[in-house]
Design brief:
alpha/beta, Isopropylmalate Dehydrogenase, two-stranded antiparallel sheet, globular, binds 1,4-dihydronicotinamide adenine dinucleotide, NAD
Length: about 375
């Protein structure tokens, strides 16, 4: 019989996505026996990356989190025309099994392939978990938004298979495989069970993408038979978009899972509904052995270097990471301080939330609340 989550009704942002971890992709790292600290790989990223990373470092240090950072340079290198990340970074992440990552810029239409994609492929990060929840005390157009979306992270429209058929005619392949669909859908069911959500919504457009999305939905129906305690609800993406905008609370008891591009777009919509800003939404990229945590937003080149970026999304990503590592008390402490700061006053909020705080004054206000 399905059991209600012990976190139901909790006031914490990541309550539904925190202590209870799915059986797939569990952290198996150990602290250094000499120092008692875990080593975590840290990719600070581009644009606003270094500024928001500094905020995480300052807050972790003030909260005495038993974590040592190992900084990774992921400046791309090219081997046989393929974009790869430098070997020391690969070795660091494979050794530590966990990384925190700032945003990485992707050149449009030329230059290296997306490093985000390269990281996902290199470490087999097959599921991207994106919770989006209203923050209590911080008023936005929508209230009581509590959405969890799991995005397939390795293929679909991001397979990178494109070619020119003839001048003016371009073909781009959306690759859907049984294996990749099955592992992300199974993860979604395990996740729903672990956090106590009784429904998995499979978002698709199989009326048009009959083979590709058709396979995704068929696999969900097969996997769903192994989870009789969880209801499976296939839903066309256009219906999901309308429902999420008109009645977001309809999804508070479910976990949505979808192919790559739908997940990318839907999760930004979810961020807008829950907070009115991309600056609040965290995410986890889960693999079988390695996991990488990052904000949903990009490198925000328009505001880089101005000390005005909102570090909340990276901070909440670091909270997801601490919960993944079993460091729940530190996770709770930082999460409570961040949320209390966002909810407190306009002068403590950054400009994306119509406030007047800088990145560093926000960080200071969080540290005062630890
Ligand atoms: P973006 O997310 O960087 O920016 C969109 C808008 O949101 C901008 O107005 C920006 O100022 C604002 N914004 C984003 N994060 C914010 C924060 N923390 N605080 C305050 N405002 C914030 O998306 P955009 O402009 O499409 O992409 C810029 C670059 O980032 C591109 O090179 C893109 O490829 C890359 N990118 C990287 C991602 C990653 O590393 N996971 C994800 C998305 C984009």
């Amino acid at each position: 019989m399905f059991k209600q989550s012990i976190f139901k009704g909790s006031r914490r942002y990541l309550a539904s996505a925190s202590r209870k971890q799915p059986s797939i992709g569990r952290f198996t790292g150990k602290p250094n026996p000499k120092t008692g600290k875990y080593t975590v790989s840290f990719i600070e990223g581009d644009g606003i990356g270094p500024e928001i990373s500094q905020s995480v470092k300052d807050i972790f240090s003030a909260a005495k989190v038993p974590v040592e950072w190992e900084y990774c340079d992921v400046t791309p290198i090219f081997i046989n025309g393929l974009t790869t990340i430098p070997d020391p970074a690969v070795q660091s992440i494979n050794k530590n099994l966990v990384a925190l990552k700032g945003p990485l810029a992707t050149p449009i239409g030329k230059g290296h392939r997306s490093l985000n994609l390269t990281l996902r492929k290199t470490f087999g990060l097959f599921a991207n978990v994106r919770p989006a929840k209203s923050i209590e005390g911080f008023k936005t157009t929508y209230e009581n938004v509590d959405l969890v979306l799991i995005r397939e992270n390795t293929e679909g429209e991001y397979s990178g298979i494109e070619h020119v058929v003839s001048p003016g005619v371009v073909q781009s392949i959306k690759l859907i495989t049984r294996d990749a669909s099955e592992r992300v859908i199974r993860y979604a069911f395990e996740y729903a069970r672990a956090v106590g959500r009784p429904k998995v919504v499979v978002v698709h457009k199989s009326t048009i993408q009959r083979l590709a999305d058709g396979l995704f939905v068929n696999v969900a129906q097969e996997v769903g038979k192994e989870y009789p305690d969880i209801e499976l609800q296939p839903e066309l993406i256009d219906n999901t978009v309308l429902n999420v905008v008109s009645k977001p609370e309809k999804y508070s008891d479910s976990v949505a899972v979808c192919p790559n591009l739908y997940g990318d777009i839907l999760s930004d919509l979810n961020s807008g509904l829950s907070a009115g800003s991309l600056g609040l939404t965290p995410s986890a990229n889960i693999g079988h052995t390695v996991s990488i945590f990052e904000a949903v937003h990009g490198s925000a080149p328009d505001i880089a270097g101005q000390n005005c970026a909102n570090p909340t999304a990276l901070l909440l990503s670091s909270v997801m990471m601490l919960n993944h590592m079993g460091l729940h008390e530190h996770a709770d402490q930082i999460e409570s301080a961040v949320l209390a700061t966002v909810a407190s006053d306009k002068k403590n909020r950054t400009a994306d939330l119509a406030g007047t705080a800088t990145t560093s004054s926000f960080t200071k206000a969080v540290i005062e609340r630890l």
